[in-house]
Amino acid sequence: MPDRQLSSSQRKTDFISLPDSFFTQAMPKIQDLAELKIVLYVSYLILRKQERPYFVTYKELLSHELMATMGEKTLRQALDSAVEHGTLLHSTLNINGVLEDVYALTVDSRQPPTINIFALYEQNIGLIQALIAEELKEAEKLYPPQWIEEAFKEAVTLNKRSWRYIASILRRWASEGKDSGEYKRDIKKDDPDKYIKGKYGHMVQR
């Protein structure tokens, strides 16, 4: 049989995966079709991203035909409802000198469900600024997820709600090892300077 070019309907289809919590926690809170549409579309756009930070701007949403058909007023109302119901996270970031509304998923299926550093920051400290966002992204790469979560908990317990304080906890653990000794055992198997190299190496100096 001669080779034939596959039609668009026959080509491999890309899929995105939503976490179980979307169906068990998010969907029961969604009030109307517009809110469901925006949550699903934000999920679609974010889960297709290949690099951090995993968020979409309001301008990105407006530029997509599907969202534009809703009308800006309906779009804003749907986004506000999704944020109020906890199905999306909202921040205002300074991007290239312009303040932008950005939206992220409460739970990203590509990350362990117990840790979302941006959500932890929003819930415990406040709005994320551009410089802090860069440090959060780098910390997420440098440190184990459970360390980040525990460092936030310790800071909140001591009423030290600042990224500077949380970063100092992580630096100390990276330098001295946590109580379990897990870190020191791991780095012996790997590069001992793994956590102090790179652009943000100053965050974990010994």
Q: What is this structure, in a nutshell?
A:
The chain is mostly helical and 206 residues long.
What would your notes on this structure say?
This protein is mostly helical and about 210 residues long. The protein folds into 2 domains: about 15-110, Arc Repressor Mutant, subunit A; about 130-205, no CATH class. It has 10 helices and 3 strands, in the order H-H-E-H-H-H-E-E-H-H-H-H-H. It has a 3-stranded antiparallel beta sheet. Strand 2 and strand 3 form a beta hairpin. Helix 2 packs across helix 5 (about 70-85) and helix 6 runs parallel beside helix 8 (about 145-155). The chain is elongated, with a radius of gyration of 20 Å. The model is unreliable at about 5-10 and about 180-205 (pLDDT under 50).
Count of DSSP-assigned helices: 10
Low-pLDDT runs of 5+ residues are 6-11, 180-206
Percent of sequence in beta strands: 5-15%
Largest sheet: 3 strands, antiparallel
- How much helix, percentage-wise, in residues? 40-55%
- What value does the average pLDDT take? 75
How is this fold's topology laid out?
Blueprint: H1 20-26, H2 33-47, E1 56-57, H3 58-63, H4 65-68, H5 72-84, E2 88-95, E3 98-105, H6 117-124, H7 130-142, H8 145-157, H9 163-176, H10 182-189
Antiparallel strand pairs: 1-3, 2-3
Helix pairs in contact: 2-5, 6-8, 8-9
Could you name the key traits of this structure?
206 residues; mainly alpha; Arc Repressor Mutant, subunit A; 2 domains; 3-stranded antiparallel β-sheet; 10 helices; disordered C terminus
